[in-house]
């Protein structure tokens, strides 16, 4: 296997260190980047086009449940994403799979599981614990609706879900207020929502515990 470039996105420094150690043991030639928030994740992805794999924690500052997973899939669909989470409920694992992850590693897993999962995914495979939760049609429909959004529209949607006004969104994302208005109109149309509140409800459905 050639030397892969891997991004580890987790807000806990000690856990990131543990993952880095496991990766060095399994793939000593790998180049590893780190991110501690959704914003940093975005910056590293933009700055490092050579990244081949993302190991992603669901609970990071700036992320809402599966939003970071959906954002990476929209921004860089060619990059496989493996979720690493302390929430390993079968329903959460199934939702991660439906929202586009190619693997799921519970944080309670032994260190060598990380190396095995990464090797499997880099080889074109997948890595999931045994699943007992049923596939959800609601999640499939939600993923399909959100997939219509551009990466910038998805960022605007997350701001909407935080209750920000257009002026605040413009400041947050460095956009003109008129541009934000255009994005909001497009978002509501694509998601078939009649109000900003309806769109925010869709984002809340991305929380790992959210049930259809």
UniProtKB/TrEMBL annotation:
- Which PROSITE patterns does this UniProt record tie to the protein? HTH_LUXR_1, HTH_LUXR_2, RESPONSE_REGULATORY
Kindly indicate whether the keyword 4Fe-4S belongs to this entry.
no
Keywords attached to this Swiss-Prot or TrEMBL record, sorted alphabetically, are: DNA-binding, Phosphoprotein
Query: InterPro entries in the record, alphabetically?
Result: CheY-like_superfamily, EvgA-like, NreC/VraR/RcsB-like_REC, Sig_transdc_resp-reg_C-effctor, Sig_transdc_resp-reg_receiver, Tscrpt_reg_LuxR_C
Top-level taxon of the source organism:
Bacteria
Q: Which GO terms describe its molecular function?
A: DNA binding
SUPFAM superfamilies named in the record: C-terminal effector domain of the bipartite response regulators, CheY-like
All residue ranges annotated as the Response regulatory domain in the record = 5-122
Q: Which is a GO BP term held by this UniProt record?
A: regulation of DNA-templated transcription
Q: Which residues carry this modification: 4-aspartylphosphate?
A: 57
Report the residue ranges that make up the HTH luxR-type domain in this protein.
Answer: 142-207
Look up keyword Phosphoprotein and say if it applies: yes
Q: What name has this protein been given in UniProt? A: Response regulator transcription factor
């Amino acid at each position: 296997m050639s030397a892969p470039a891997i991004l580890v996105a987790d807000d806990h420094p000690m856990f990131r260190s543990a993952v880095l150690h496991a990766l060095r043991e399994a793939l000593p030639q790998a180049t590893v980047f780190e991110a501690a928030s959704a914003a940093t994740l975005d910056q590293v992805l933009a700055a490092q086009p050579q990244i081949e794999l993302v190991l992603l924690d669901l609970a990071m500052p700036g992320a809402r449940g599966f939003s970071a997973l959906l954002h990476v899939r929209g921004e860089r669909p060619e990059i496989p994403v493996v979720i690493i989470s302390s929430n390993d409920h079968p329903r959460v694992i199934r939702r991660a799979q439906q929202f586009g992850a190619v693997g799921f590693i519970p944080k309670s897993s032994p260190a060598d599981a990380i190396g095995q999962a990464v090797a499997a995914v880099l080889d074109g495979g997948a890595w999931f614990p045994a699943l007992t939760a049923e596939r959800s049609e609601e999640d499939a429909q939600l993923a399909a609706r959100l997939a219509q959004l551009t990466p910038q529209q998805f960022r605007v949607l997350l701001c909407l879900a935080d209750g920000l006004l257009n002026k605040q969104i413009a400041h947050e994302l460095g956009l003109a207020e008129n541009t934000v208005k255009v994005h909001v109109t497009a978002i509501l149309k694509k998601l078939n929502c009649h109000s900003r509140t309806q769109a925010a409800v869709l984002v809340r459905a991305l929380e790992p515990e959210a049930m259809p």
